[in-house]
Amino acid sequence: MCGLTALMLIGGLAVADQSTASWREAINKSDVAALHQLAGTGVDVNTGARYGKTALMLAASKGDIQLMHRIIALGADVNQVNRSSGNAMMYAAQYGQRQAAEVLIQHGADINHRAGKGWSALMIAVLKGHSTMADFLLENGADPNVRDVLGWTPLMRAADAGHQTIVNILVNRPDIDLNSRNQHGQNALHIATIIGTTSIVTALLDRGIEVNVADSDGNTPLAIAKLKGKTQLVKLLQR
Question: Contact at 8 Å (CB) between 128 and 91?
Answer without folding.
Answer: no
